Amino acid sequence: MRTRGTGPGRETHGPKVNPGCGRRRGPAGAGYGRGVGRKDDLFRVATGLHRAILRVSGGRVLGRLAGMPVLLLTTTGRRSGLRRTTVLTAPLQDGPRLVLVASYAGDDRHPAWFLNLREQPDVVVEIGGRSRAMRARVAGRQEAERLWPRVEEAYAGYRSYRRRTDRAIPIVILEPRPEGGPAHLAS
């Protein structure tokens, strides 16, 4: 058995923790959740394919999904420090602000992109073939309660995601990065 991290409060986890992707590996039926590895692999493959199509087409092909605009979100890996890009939808746009939902399709785990931006909130968003430097923040409880009805109106699937998990699914607000702010992700 290996441990994740060091210091007080760190617990020992099951066999073989892959620090590169946070996915536990072990024999089938070893208590890692039904199909968790397959789900992660499916998300990874689908995201890679969708990302490639978006980039090649400048967002003209597959630029909308379920009526919502599709974007590429680039974060800084919280452990690796490397740039990580994922494909997401933005159920709400309020002027230059974008609203994201860290649903991971109702999984009991937070998506890696959310964990990354929580540690390093400066991100880059590519939408419609244009990149923007933005800063992320997690909506507070009251703000999230005001946003959820609008988010679920934009895509009713979020309602079932919320029922599927016991975790509070975070809502993330992306706002334009202030001029002169850190630009370590800017392309």
In short:
The chain is α+β, with helices and mostly antiparallel strands. It is built from four helices and eight strands; from the N terminus they run H-E-E-E-E-E-H-E-E-H-H-E.
What does this structure look like?
This protein has 187 residues and is of the alpha+beta class. The chain has a single domain, classed as Electron Transport, Fmn-binding Protein, Chain A (Pnp Oxidase, Chain A). It contains four helices and eight strands; from the N terminus they run αβββββαββααβ. The chain has helices spanning 36-57, 112-119, 141-154, 157-164; strands spanning 64-65, 68-76, 83-89, 92-94, 97-101, 122-127, 130-138, 171-176. The chain starts with 35 loop residues before the first helix and ends in an 11-residue tail after the last strand.
Q: What is the number of strand segments?
A: 8
The coarse overall form would be globular
Name of the level-1 CATH class: Mainly Beta
Counting helices, strands and paired strands, the structural category is: alpha+beta
For the largest beta-sheet, the strand count, sense and barrel status come to: 8 strands, antiparallel
Task: Note poorly predicted spans.
Answer: 1-34
Order of helices and strands: HEEEEEHEEHHE
- Which value, in Å, is the CA radius of gyration? 17 Å
What is the fold named in CATH at topology level? Pnp Oxidase, Chain A
Helix share of residues? 25-40%
CATH H-tier superfamily: Electron Transport, Fmn-binding Protein, Chain A
Average pLDDT number: 77
The CATH architecture would be: Roll
Strand composition percent: 25-35%
Give the number of helices: 4
What is the number of independent domains? 1
What is the distance, rounded to the nearest whole angstrom, between the alpha carbons of the first and last residues? 40 Å
